[in-house]
Amino acid sequence: MSDLNVVGATHLATVRDRGGPRRGAEQNQLDLVADGAVAIRHGRIAAVGRTHEVMAEWGDPAVPVLDAAGKTVLPGLVECHSHALFGGERHHEYAERLAGASLAEVAARGGGIWASVEASRSTGDSELRRRLARSYAHILWGGVTTLEVKSGYGLTVAEELRQLTLLEASRQDTPMQLVITFLGAHVVPRDLTTPGPDVEPSQVYTELIADDMLPAVARQGIAQFHDVTVEDGYFTPAQARRLMDDGRAAGFTPRVHADAWKPSQGWATAAGAGAISADHLTYTPDHEIHDVGTTETVAGLLPMAELIYMTERRANARAFIDRDVPVAISTDYCSSIHATSLLVTMTMAAPWFRMTPAEAVVGTTLNAAYSLGLGAECGSLDVGKRGDLIVVDCPHPHELFLAPGTPLLEAVVIEGAVVHAPLVAATAGEPTNHG
Length: 435
Ligand SMILES: [Zn+2]
What we know:
Blueprint: E1 4-13, E2 32-41, E3 44-50, H1 51-58, E4 65-67, E5 72-75, E6 77-79, H2 91-98, H3 103-108, H4 113-121, H5 125-140, E7 144-150, H6 157-169, E8 177-185, H7 201-220, E9 225-230, H8 237-249, E10 253-258, H9 266-272, E11 277-280, H10 286-292, E12 298-301, H11 303-309, H12 317-322, E13 327-329, H13 342-353, H14 357-363, H15 366-371, E14 389-392, H16 397-401, E15 409-414, E16 417-419, H17 422-427
Helix pairs in contact: 6-7, 7-8, 13-14
The protein binds zinc ion (ZN).
């Protein structure tokens, strides 16, 4: 929790917080300040504005200065959907898919999420944590200052609790603010024993989550959210609704994986249950978006998932924005998608979804923060929020969108502390705190 003055930015994209996520035309505004400065004291933003105005009051010579002349300053990016804790490798599956294999063929050969569940269960704590720390270093250097991480490659009471324990311990391995989500309802485990051949495994597993996992996760006290998949062939809307309601009774606000592979009534189910977010939405039909209308639920769109999964359609971002639904963007970093850079994902989301640069920036900052219940804490450059920001080497934020993948990120600031060269430290050996 440091003091810092960031001065002389050619542009600050403040993304001012007006008390909620941005929706409709408001998602298309960055609230740019030319020749901008941010004063951070004790890790919190104390002032934002034109450099001469901010420095007239806050120009204490004892406070370190970060000169952002010629640069753009954005709020620290908020990654609101990741599955960073997993064992094993799945790159061969992607190569098979690219060579023409179907998802079903890859799954039949032992691939898919189940492969990661088995690999994660058989990987020891220290190795999982080492891999996680390495992933955090990459994610951080994609401009992320707040990261949501899910369990969900365990799928037994004991393994889900172990994953949550590891995620909690991993707070020591990164300066990023972590938000931890319990995702027992990721997929139905293949090794589940059912009472008979006529009993649906998804129903048996739904009851296991409701009766055993949710109470144990609540007692453990680590998870902050409860995520549920609504997807044809995974969990039905009725099963998911039951889990969301039971989770809420146990103290968890629901998040949802919806319509990633097929239209599955995922969006309507999530919005109907008051989920704080529903993510993927690749196959959500336009009529469902229209009928559900505006929501408090944030629609989380995942362009890298659609790219790597080679889906036959893309989420209809324009329909969500037209219906005044707040849209967030994230990487979906997981065992089968190793896109760690939210900055690159943001620049790609614009042409992928036909979003404007401003809509994509808002989707990776303020709206993502609200989708994690952290609107009051981060996601914009507003007085009182965490002193989290990034400095990129271009004079205007639109320039980023012409340069996807170019390493323009110059500095990541978390609670006023400049984070340096995290990649080297994290890949050199034991997990380290880069704060
Ligand atoms: Zn996911």
